[in-house]
Amino acid sequence: MMISASAALWFLPLVLPICLYVCFTDMRGMRITNPAVMALFVVYVAIGLLALPFDAYLWRYLHLVVALVAGMALNAGGAMGAGDAKFAAAAAPFIHLGDLRFLMALFAANLLGAFVAHRIAKHSALRRLAPDWMSWQSGAKFPMGMALGGTLATYLAIGVFFGR
């Protein structure tokens, strides 16, 4: 992995609770809240200065812009929710560009795993633990925050152990 282990270690403790919150709120209400997205952005702004070389820190803001534009296009086409697009944009600066291929594979695995786990829980006794969650009645829609949050948290956790 190209992310440095020290940068991943700086980010992970603050990003992990946000990712878990995003998974929870997206399953409960089928929405990723703006405060969660802003919190993720604030973590990058504050901790990125400590964790990354200054030039890399500044360049990664471009990741945010590119992800936001792509997310807006996907949202306009109905392929992605607005909260998902905003979360992906706020998460983009945490990713080292050299890890993009790895991240895409990790996202695919997370998406598949989250989808299967959600569908199993939806049709099992686990549903009784949270009977009012909107994601159970969402039809074909899926709470993508599970996969997005899971991907970012897993990427940083793997980066702690296998980063350069």
TrEMBL record:
<keyword id="KW-0472">Membrane</keyword>
<dbReference type="GO" id="GO:0016020">
    <property type="term" value="C:membrane"/>
</dbReference>
<dbReference type="GO" id="GO:0004190">
    <property type="term" value="F:aspartic-type endopeptidase activity"/>
</dbReference>
<dbReference type="InterPro" id="IPR000045">
    <property type="entry name" value="Prepilin_IV_endopep_pep"/>
</dbReference>
<feature type="transmembrane region" description="Helical">
    <location>
        <begin position="102"/>
        <end position="121"/>
    </location>
</feature>
<feature type="domain" description="Prepilin type IV endopeptidase peptidase">
    <location>
        <begin position="15"/>
        <end position="117"/>
    </location>
</feature>
<feature type="transmembrane region" description="Helical">
    <location>
        <begin position="61"/>
        <end position="82"/>
    </location>
</feature>
<feature type="transmembrane region" description="Helical">
    <location>
        <begin position="142"/>
        <end position="162"/>
    </location>
</feature>
<keyword id="KW-1133">Transmembrane helix</keyword>
<feature type="transmembrane region" description="Helical">
    <location>
        <begin position="36"/>
        <end position="54"/>
    </location>
</feature>
<keyword id="KW-0812">Transmembrane</keyword>
<dbReference type="Pfam" id="PF01478">
    <property type="entry name" value="Peptidase_A24"/>
</dbReference>
<protein>
    <recommendedName>
        <fullName>Prepilin type IV endopeptidase peptidase domain-containing protein</fullName>
    </recommendedName>
</protein>
